[in-house]
Amino acid sequence: MPSPKKKALGRGLGSLIQEAQTEAGSNQQDRQETMVSIEDIHPNPHQPRTHFNETELEELSESIRSHGVLQPLLVRKDDKGYEIIAGERRYQASKIAGVTEVPVVVREVDDNEMLELALIENLQRSDLNPIEEAKGYRKLIQATGMTQEALSKAVSKSRSAITNSLRLLDLPQRVQDLLFEGKLTAGHARAILAVPYEEARIKLAEKVVAEGLSVRATENLAPLFSVGDTPKAPRPVTPQSFKKAARMLRQVFNTNVKVKSSRGKNKIEIEFKDEDELANIMNRVLSDMKPSEVEDEE
Known about the structure:
The chain is of the alpha/beta class. The chain has 3 domains: 4-166, Conserved hypothetical protein from pyrococcus furiosus pfu- 392566-001, ParB domain, CATH 3.90.1530.30; 174-225; 240-284, no CATH class. Helix content is 50%, strand content 12%. The protein has 13 helices and 7 strands. The protein has helices spanning 13-24, 54-67, 88-97, 111-125, 130-144, 148-154, 159-167, 173-180, 186-192, 198-211, 215-225, 240-253, 275-286, and strands at 33-37, 41-42, 73-78, 81-86, 101-106, 257-262, 265-270. The chain is elongated.
C-alpha cells in the first residue's frame, strides 16, 4: 500500500482537473461560496507562481474596486484561518484595492492535492514563467513520487513537454535568472542547453540578451560556443624539492634553471644565451669532477 506522502492523485484526476477548470473560469458549475475577511486569508507557501507583475496587479485592483472580486478564491481551512490553494493574484490585488472581504470556495485537500490544484490552475491561466513551471513540476514529483508520465496526464501536457521543462533547471543559476526575468524565452533556453559547459552557457545567454538575438540565431551560435570549452586537466603540483633544487642551481650557474616533469619524465633545463655562457656553465660543472671522470671526445 502506498505511503500517504506518496499519494499522487488524491481524490482522483477528474476531480482535480474539474477544480482547476472551475478556478480558471472554464467551468461554471454551482459552487458553495462564502465571504471571508481578507485578514483571515494567507498565501500558500508552496504556490508555484512566485512573481506577480506590479502593473498587472494594479490593473486588477482597479477592476476589483469597480466591480468587486468576480471569481472566488479556492482555499482550505487551517489553524491560521484560510490558506490559498488558487487565486493568490486576486488576493494580492484585493489587498491593494483595500477590500476587506473576498468570496472563497472552501475545499478539504491535503498538501499534495493542494500543490496539484495550484499548479494546474496556474497552467490553465498560463500565469507561470518557464522557471516557475519547471520548479512546480519538480516539486510535485518530489512531493508525490509520481512519474513524469503520470504528471503529464495530471496537467494535460505531453511527456516531452514535461521533460523539456524540467531540463531548464539544469541551466546555470545566472541563465535561470534571465529566463525568470523574461529576458530569455524557453526556446532560447533549450538552444543554450545544447552547449555542454556552464561558463559557455552563461556567455551565450548574456550575448543573446545583450544583442536581442532570436531563437534561431541562438541555435546557430550554440555549436560555436561548444568548441574549445573542454575543461583542461589541472596542472600537476610541482614538488617543493624541485623548486628548492631549481633555486640552488640558479645561484650556482647564475642563469635561469627549471626542474620539472614533462610527459612522465623529470628534467633539469639550464638556459644560456651564447657559447661563452655555455662554457662558464660547463666549467662550473667540470670543476667538481675528477680528471679521470672527464672524457674529451675531440
